[in-house]
Each structure stands twice: as C-alpha cells, then as structure tokens.
Amino acid sequence: MYQDSKNITLPTDPETIVWKYLDLSKFLDLLLSNKLFMSRSDKFEDQYEGTFSEPTFEEIKKISKNNPDFLHYYKQKRKNIVISSWHINEYESFAMWQIFTKNNEGIAIQSTVDRLQKALHVEQRVDQYIGEVNYIDYKKEFIPFEDQFFPFLFKRKSFQYEKEIRIITDVTPLNIEVNEGIKIHVDVEQLIEKIYIHPKSENWYKNLVLELMQKLNFKFDVEKSDLESDILI
Q1: What domain of life is recorded for the organism (predicted)?
Q2: Chain-centre distance of CA 131, in angstroms?
C-alpha cells in the first residue's frame, strides 16, 4: 500500500505528469499480470545507485567506528530495496524514447503522481513510497540519512536529464531472495492514463497495440507519438 513519508519529497501538484518508457513485452506483462516490476536497487546500470556521497560516507565512517554493523546494514539494504523509475515531464521525451526502447518499437505510459499513488493501494504485502530524486555533487554535497530510503533518492548531477520520480519499496518483510527484482500488485486501470506508441514505429505496430488492447478489454487512449508528426511548410 502507498504510504506518505515526511522525509520524502514529491511534486506539490498531484496532477504532475509522469512517464514510463518500456518495450511491448514488458508492457504486456504489466497488463496480463496486473503487477509492476520493481528492479533491485543494486542491479541498476549506475554503480553509485544506493551509495553515499563522500561527505556522507565520512560521517558514516565515524558512526561505524563504535558500531561496525551500521555500514554492513546499509550494504545489505541495497539487496532488499526495489525501485520503479518514472520520468517527470509535461511532454514526452525524445531522449527517453532513445534510452529505454529499441528498434523503433516501444510504449510510453502517461500517468500522474496522483494516479501512481492510487494504483499502489492494491498491494497489501509491503508498503510503497514515492519520491522525487535529488541530483547532487557526490564529492561535495551531504546526503541526510534521517530516512531509511535516503541513499536511494539521490543521484549524481550527470543524471539530471532523467528528471526521475521513484516508487520505492523495502521487501525485507517478505523474507524472500530478490534476484533481479520483484513484481508488486497495481491497479492497471488507475495507473495508466494514456499510451503513446514509439514515434518511429510503423503503422502495423500501432494497429497491433490497438488489437491487443481490444482483446484484453482495456480501453486506454492509444496515441502515436507526435514527435514524428508531419512538417508544416
């Protein structure tokens, strides 16, 4: 179930638009299972994911002198924190299409912060939190650690283009071994506001997506990305 946290920041407007870019197979898995895949935090491509900035690490080393288990606890924590990443943007992003889809095929889910929050209430096993990622200088800036999720809501400034908002969960209570990640229950109808088709996809691809929606009895609005609309002269 979605929970608020005073230490995790969100956009002030609940109608803030968010996006998730993914391939068709992952999109179909979401629709068929009514479950959202959450990646294990230490499996992300960025090796700094879930680690500390240099000033924070120096502070934690001081604490760890008298409590050696403190640092070990956070190293182990990375294996049980799972994350679903979304992109904050009023409009679709050409860069996100390029990064997260291949072969001129793929889907973009358009949603809002409010929809994300409501869609998570069907998952009762563990709590989920939503937070906006902070982009900082890891050599100079301190990451506060009042919150259990503190290292997972900070990234290096070189990733600012992602404008990321995260669904984040600690699956420790489930007492399971997390490999690449886990799936959590979501209300798909609530999660998805609109679907966009890859801007460079062929017409057959959009027709395929429309046919799949019809067979699965989903009535989402399906749009072809307008990044490749006709040039007006």
Answers
A1: Bacteria
A2: 10
